[in-house]
Amino acid sequence: MLAHQLPVLPPFQLFWDELSDVFDWLHETKEKEVLATVPIVGGAIDRSWSPPPMTQAWHAAVPLEIIRFSAANRLCVDLEYKNELRLIEPYSLSKTSEGNILLHAIRNEDGEPRSYRLDRIQGASATNVSFSPKYMIELTASGPLHASETECASSQRSGRIGVSKGRIFGGPAYVVECPYCGKKFRRKTNSTTLKAHKDKNGYPCTGRHGFLADTIY
């Protein structure tokens, strides 16, 4: 039932296999395993830096939300990097002393740690290949996420959500959101296919399949 709202529907078996551990944790009969951080490859790291909870603050045309979605759901990512496609397990982000942001991952084929510069990532897509974390996943925020104050105020005044212009006549309007850039489109039909478009910063977005964010009656 969620397949039309998610970039990729995680395998049911992945959640089913972990269900007994969840109940053991709830009943305090089993402690949650504390994993080590992923090995960092790629130079000196700025330990004072931490990634912001929303990618809009990065001003980077990189599909980080897809990578975060995959990490949270234990799914491997097809990463396009230096004109090659690599299947990786995403784990964390860091910033080097030179100012480069790195994605730290494990190469799925051989379990080797790898680091990828964010500005050199050409594309990323979630797969249905699941993985069991070998290290701590630090790509998802542990606290509340905050939207831009300007966007919130604007939405409250207008009573509308930020979607592309165009009036819909007759029947409900379907709001489809691009998981790559966060841009929203209003549709007459419940179709999540996206045409070529630009992100909020004016860069070409690679997203071609969105998810249903809202239905307006």
Describe it for me?
16% of the residues lie in helices and 28% in strands. It is α+β, with helices and mostly antiparallel strands and 217 residues long. It folds into 2 domains: 12-130, no CATH class; 149-216, no CATH class. The strands form 3 sheets. The chain has a 5-stranded antiparallel β-sheet with strand order 4-3-2-1-5, with helices on one face. It has a 3-stranded antiparallel β-sheet with strand order 7-6-10, with no helix packed on it. The chain is globular and about 50 Å long.
The number of helical elements comes to 3
Which sequence of strands runs across the widest sheet? Answer: 4-3-2-1-5
> First CA to last CA: what distance?
21 Å
Shape: globular
Main structural class: alpha+beta
What ranges have pLDDT less than 50 throughout 5 or more consecutive residues?
142-169
Average of pLDDT: 77
Name a few traits of the molecule:
217 residues; alpha+beta; five-stranded antiparallel beta sheet; three-stranded antiparallel beta sheet; 10 strands; 16% helix
Write the layout of secondary structure elements.
Layout: H1 12-26, H2 64-72, E1 75-81, E2 84-95, E3 101-107, E4 113-117, E5 121-130, H3 149-158, E6 173-177, E7 184-187, E8 197-198, E9 204-205, E10 211-216
Antiparallel strand pairs: 1-2, 1-5, 2-3, 3-4, 6-7, 6-10, 8-9
